[in-house]
Structures are given as C-alpha cells and as structure tokens.
TrEMBL record:
Catalysed reactions listed for this entry: Couples ATP hydrolysis with the unwinding of duplex DNA by translocating in the 3'-5' direction
Presence of the UniProt keyword DNA-binding in the record: yes
Keywords assigned: ATP-binding, DNA-binding, Helicase, Hydrolase, Isomerase, Metal-binding, Nucleotide-binding
Species in which this protein is naturally found: Arachidicoccus ginsenosidivorans
GO cellular component annotations of the record: bacterial nucleoid; cytoplasm; replisome
BP terms from Gene Ontology: DNA recombination; DNA repair
Source species taxonomy: Bacteria, Pseudomonadati, Bacteroidota, Chitinophagia, Chitinophagales
EC number: 5.6.2.4
Name of the featured protein: ATP-dependent DNA helicase RecQ
Entry similarity comment: Belongs to the helicase family. RecQ subfamily.
Recorded superkingdom: Bacteria
Domain (Helicase C-terminal) ranges: 220-370
GO MF annotation, one: four-way junction helicase activity
All copies of domain Helicase ATP-binding, residue ranges: 28-196
Amino acid sequence: MDQQQHIQHILKEYWGFDSLRGIQQEVITAVMAGKDVLAIMPTGGGKSLCFQVPALMRDGLCLVVSPLIALMQDQVSHLKQRGIPAAALHSGLGSTEIVRLYDDLQAGLYRFLYVSPERLDSIGFLRCIRHIQVQLLVVDEAHCIAEWGYDFRPAYLNIGKVRKELNHVACLALTASATPAVQKDILQQLDFKDPEICCQDFARPKLSYTVHACVDENEKQETLFGYLGRHEGQSTLIYARSRRVTEQLAALLSAEGYPAGYYHAGLEHDQRESVSKQWLENNPAIMVATSAFGMGIDKPDVRLVVHYGPTDNLESYYQQAGRAGRDMQAASAVLLYTPADLQQQQNLPALLYPPFATIQQFYQHLADYLKLPVGLGEDRFFSFMIADFALKFKWNPLQVHSILKNLEQSGLITYLEQVYLPSKLKITASRAEVAAYVEGVKEPAEVLDYLMRHYEHIFMEAVTIRESQIAWQLYLDEARLRKILFGLNQAGFIRYMPARNLPQIHFLTGRAPASSLVFDHERYEKRKKWFEWRLEMLLRYIQQTSKCRPQMLAAYFGQTLAKPCGICDNCKAATTPKT
C-alpha cells in the first residue's frame, strides 16, 4: 500500500477514525519525509496523532519528551489500551523499575517511550539510548525550551544533548501556542535544519470570546450565575487563580443550585482522578479548577469556559479558553474581572520577582524547612508542600511558587509540581520471622506469602506494588488489604508507603549558604521584563473594547485573521445600533 493508504490503515486499525483533521495530515507527511517539524496546534487539535501515526508506520522507538507525569501516564495508558507497547520514564519510578525498563527498551519491547526532561541527562538513560534505534524524537510542550517564553523549564535544554547522542534524528516539536520570538527560540535550541513549520489557523468560527468588566466581587458572582443559567446542564469549566478560591467558588455554586466539583494540585492523586472522571461524565457538569487542570483532558463538548479573574499572560488564556467547543459547535469563553483583579495583576511583577535579598531569605527558610545543612543535598529529592511551608514561614504561596521557578531557572533546583509516587513496600523482618508469623494468622499470612512469592527483591529494597492487583489475586476487598498492610507496618514486619502525589524539590547542587548564593541577576531581570511585557499585553487585551478579540490573539501569536469574527463581545458591540 502507498503512504496515504498506510496512514488511513493505521488510523482506522488503532483509533477507529476514518480521516485526519486540521493540519494533522500536513504534519504527518512532513514527519514521514524525515523533516524537522514545528507544529503549532491549538488545544484539542489532536497533537498526539501527529507522531503516534507515523511512528507506527516505521520500525524503531518513538521518544517523547513530556513535562507532566500525569499526562505521560495517561498517554501510555491509552496506547496500551489500543495494544500498542509504551512506557514512561519519570521521577516516580524506583531504581529496580528503571533498570527493568532499560532492559526492556534494549530488547525492543516498546514502540513509544515517554520521558520527563529531568531524566534526559542521567548517565543511565544516555548509556541506554545509545543502543536503541530511535526513529523519531518528539518534544511536547516545546515552548518550555524557550528561555524567554512564559513557561521556560531549564531541563528542556537537555534535549539538545540527547539529540546529538541520537545523531540528530528527525524531531517533531509540538506546542499549542508560541509567539514569533518563542518559535525562533525553539528552532535554535533544537538545532532544526531546514524546518517545516505547520501552524493551524487560529480561526474558531463558533467560539465567542467575551470580557466582562464588573464593579465588584458581588457583581462578578451575579454575572457568573447569569452565564451558568444560560448554559444550565451544559459542560462548563471555570478557571480560578488559587486553590482556596476554587474550593470556595465550587461550594458557593453548589449552594446556589449549580452543582460543581473542584480540582487543584493540592488534591490527592485518587481524588483528582475521581473528580476528573465525574466531570467527564457531566456529574457534575461544572468544574472549578486552577490551571493545573486541563492538560490531556479530552472533552470535546465543553460549552462554556469562564476565567474568574485574569491569567498572567495571553498564552495561558488562549490555551484555557480553547478548551471550549472542541467539537466545533457553538461555545463561549468568558473572562470576568473587577478593578481589584486588575490591581492584583499589576502588583504581580513586584511580588513574583522580588529583590535578591528576599530570594536569599527564602533560600535560607527552604533549607530550614528541609533541615538541610550547608554543603549537603546534591542530587537529593525532597517532598515539599507550598501551603505548609508558606504557613510556617509566613510567605505568600504565589511568591513561593515564583521563587522556586526562578531558583530552578538559575540551575540550583528542579521543582516538580506533581509527582505521583506509587505505593512502595519492603519486608523488614527476616525470612525466619516472617515464616514464624505466617503460621499464626490467616489473612496477613496470605498477604506476606503473596508478597514474598511475587516480588523478587522485596527483602532488599522497597518495591512498587499495586494494591488493587494484590487484592484481586487474594480475593480481598482493597480497603481490607490496606488495613492489613498498615497493621503489618505497625507491627514492624514491613515498611509500607501508600501511593501519594506530592510536589518534589530536586537539589542540583549542594545547599549553599544563603549569603553566597550563586544567582544570575542579569537573566533574572530580563525574565522580569518579559513577564511585565506579557502581562501588559494581557491587560491591553482585557481593556480593549473595539477590536475583534480573535484578531488580537492571532496578531499576538504572529498570525493574521483576514476578517473580524463577528461573534466576540467587541464585534457584537460594533454592529449593535446605538440608541
């Protein structure tokens, strides 16, 4: 069969689709031609098919760099459900699991490997990847490699090193939004040769953008109720700036007769999974969330996206608003704000980019919180809860988050916001002690016996376990199994660490004295200026009352829309007769 027939065959066999959409065909054709490709596709544009389809048409491994562990795990799960062998390499894996994964890779057992950027410069990974036939390198969320972009992540700079190890294998860079400056930075950092740039049209003819100025918080709430009333029963996503506001707003909406769930990074992994699943099933139809929600969520029928206050930049706003109407049916993106919201935004540069003395003080408090002496900590991971730290040391949580990112961008730490750590278990008693115990009690004995038979190194190190699988094998209720494990832990037979989802700080160097902290002041000031510029562009967009909003967004991202959309608030106002 020819190439086009092969594409259609793969598409139908694994996904059940009859055709591609948007610029997917253009991207896949360029990838199959062996070109370096930068694809700029809006949220919901079907980015994953652009590399999954061509990768299945050729032999070898497709290496995918992705910044979010939850998104990697979701993608791997979807591929496995379709019978496609895939794996993910990230900080949540133990040493035994990583060694096994490397062995499986070298045996050619996988078609796709998703890897977090922080793993790219590890000696073990580089040694392993040299002996594998990698046919395509994919960089998801490619804007993270642009130093002056809105979400720069230094670990992305490791991609260039990996590409050299792979003899400059063809590369596909994917992002939902990139200004011309960020596009240029992506191409330079990835060392693209004669690149193909594929950019999907910004036009969304059935998505209406509205910005609504409110006098105060009461009017903002009433305006929100009005929009929810007009979209009653329809899938709705409301973005709020903080965890506290998401919980408060969800409670308020539920009390007013608009049942709503809430989502933020502070929830436990199981909670986040549960509320996401419920919202996908429209039970409830309304989700109030921070920006942590939405990545990888495939829900085409969202009819309303509301920003309950401004974002920091147009990139975030555009991506989040674009989650409305992915099914190409009529949908609305609404931004509500008050004068107090604008004042808060204007205060952000000073809060998020404080004087160096404040950063030194923060670094000292961080060391105190982690009980980390000077000179120690290099290459160690520490669990870190922003809310707990902020409460103990009286810091603004927003400022904590920003300083962590700036320490990261200066090469001192890596801050991992969502690290899912699976359940781990080690048998700490001797084999003789276990054997003696096994004779005495039935259910715990069965559990210990199962663990010894199925986990080879469980006496030597903590191994990853899945409680659901063990419970199923032993005909136990999962809650009952957990109770048994906690009992064995308390009795001193095992060390049991249940699954958890905690942010992690990875120290890249030994802890320095705060007074001699090495910090790139010039780059810091430049990042602050870029932040101020992006914020200014956002505020201009919000306060603009005459220009077509999609045309303004397109211009910001270096594109042109030939004619006004006709359905945004400004276009409607222009055509409404004055009375």
